[in-house]
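Hi R.,

Here's the chain you asked about this morning:
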Amino acid sequence: MTASPPSFTAKIGFLRGLCTADDEAIETHFAWVFLIGAYAVKLRKPVRRGTMDYGSLEARRLGALAELRLNLPLAPEVYLEVVPLTVLSDGRLAVGGEASPCDWLVRMRRLDRGRFLDALLTRGADVEAALAGVARRLADFYRDAAAAPLDGPGFLARLRHQVAANHRVLDDAGVPGANRLCAQQDGFIASRSTLLADRATSGCVVEAHGDLRPEHIFLGTPPAVIDRLEFDRDLRTLDRAEELSFLELECARIRQAAVGQRLRRDCLAALGDAAPPALLAFYRSHRAATRAKLYVWRSQEPDGDTPETWIDRARSYLGDALAEAAQLRP
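And here is the predicted structure, written out as tokens:
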């Protein structure tokens, strides 16, 4: 009789058991990360949400391999290997080895959480000297990134679809201002269609990071950018100016707008990219609306917080989106 595979709870329990007093187990929306000694291991949750499907063992193996491959350009010193979580003949779990895999782990170097950009900015640390290295690493990454297979009309259609999708979710949730925002963003796309189409045809739309936030930027020597979005290529296909505008937005939300502006400005300058201010304002507005949509979705999931917590955050991001969209008036 074949033994049942270990439950996800048993896997979490085993990995927790490897932690000592100086170690830590961190639950994220889609995974568990265990900080054990000098290393970290990441175990995906067996979940299916939208375009992300980690319901099967094979899907989690492929996702782990994709995470390793995609993060090497921006964090080669951090991401090390994919290792199996195995079941020994006596039923005990082990990390690695030749026994049958029951799951897959991404193994990384453990990073000091106090040296991530968000943590440093929150406690008022001076990060000025480190920002040039971050901008260089990002510029090198964008310079080498594969251009998206989009022509001008295709990119315009994609933006219109995204604006409509954001509006549909926000409007259905009754978030105030959704209609006005949609009209302003659609108006910008219509009036600046040549500018936007040129971004695609000139190679500015690339396979980017996909989730470039201060909490993913590690100010080490050298700096590293982690947690590149791996489960959906379309979601990480962005104008590099849009991605950097998102980083600028997220820095502003922790009252460090100048840091985001510096990184966006220096990175685009290194690329010879003279993205105009109106385009950057549109992208900040668009990314803020997208974040608002994500928080509406999160309010509909049972994850330990009240729905109103996430709706309040959606409203906050929509306020940012409207403030940026106000700059788009002719």
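One quick note: The chain has eleven helices and twelve strands.

Cheers,
M.
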